[in-house]
Amino acid sequence: MSKSKNKPKHQIQVVPKTDKQYLTTGMARRLPIVECWINPDWRQKGMSTIVLARQHKNGGYTMGSYLVDTFCLGLKQTMFLVNQSPIKYRLKLGQLFTSQDCVPVDYVAAHNIIYGGIAYADELGFKPEKDWVLTQYLLEADDDAVDLIDIEFGHNGRPFYMAGPYDKPAEVLAKLEKAVGSGNFDYIAYIRENDPLAYLNEEEEDDDDKE
């Protein structure tokens, strides 16, 4: 009787040919998270820039960045780099935080901001940026293994839409009216300044001066 039938079958390991394939296989989640950054004023601005980095055995970095509008729109922008040199990673990190400070943030907090922002925006009718289908695989799976943190989304208990330079305000406002009704959200048009909320603060200061 031949023994060849009892030989174990060799499993063929498929090597991803592209960065996109590498991410969708979930292989990046096996790498340790070594850094996670955020702008420290994200609560006040309602806009968080989060950068997460995982490191390969060869010293390279795979990273994802997530621009989350916590007041209304959820994940507005996201991008990734796969197995880049430390120099290229630091260069990109500096570019992402050119106009603002960054501080280390606990991964669980970052996870909750990203997924919570997406969930809040989804209730209002807004979907995450298209590359989320890829960059989600740089984060841990959104399950019970990650602690849930209570984070406030919206501003003063209601959606607050701060129009950006590339938004389509009419479409956004139409969705908000459908989701929560006219008069149940706040809106500020895009102003060519670094901080849209500065306009509101200036108005409040002017009102205080008049009193």
Can you describe this structure?
The protein has 211 residues and is an alpha+beta fold. It has one domain. Helices cover 33% and strands 20% of the residues. It contains seven helices and seven strands; from the N terminus they run H-E-H-E-E-E-H-E-H-H-E-H-E-H. It has helices spanning 19-24, 42-45, 86-96, 107-124, 132-135, 169-180, 196-210, and strands at 33-38, 47-55, 61-69, 74-84, 103-104, 160-162, 186-188. The strands form two sheets. Strands 4-3-2-1-5 form a five-stranded antiparallel sheet.
- In total, the number of strands is 7
Average pLDDT, to the nearest integer? 88
Shape: globular
Beta fraction: 15-25%
H-E order: HEHEEEHEHHEHEH
> Low-confidence segments, ≥5 residues, pLDDT <50?
198-211
Radius of gyration (Å) = 21 Å
